[in-house]
Write the structure tokens for this entry.
Amino acid sequence: GVTTPSTITAPAITNYAFESWTVGNGVQTEDAVTANSFITRFENMIKDGFFEKTKVDTLIIHGGTNDSNRGSPIGELQYSDWTEEDLKSFAPAVSYLFNKVKETLPDTRVIIIIDDTLRYDIASTLAAAADYYGFEAVHLDNDIEMIEPHPTVLGMKQIERAIREAMFPEN
């Protein structure tokens, strides 16, 4: 038969949810944020050998919510020569993270989720960095059911549907 998104099964799905933290290393108490930021957790996955042991076909990054809600400074996109101070602002932190993803997973399909509830500067930065690194962007509209600032169970299903539609547009 025809394989559709609803009938595709993956041998393994790993969810490295980086909930309740920011992309970069700023905003809250510095030690807690640095230890739990998307950047630090991705770097820990590299150090732990996760990507050497695991073939990653598709990586989906849904970030920026906590940066948006906690008032992360935006900074400027930059594509090299990051300092620790740079990584306290959202734009350089996103560039750094996406650069690490591209270096570590050059053959992996990368999808960036951009939620319409994000601050404009956060959303536009995600879109610009995704474009620069050749990553796909899935823009979620305001129809996602939320209990601020996070999606409900129905909202998660709506996000899943949006990702499936982006991943399998022919179906």
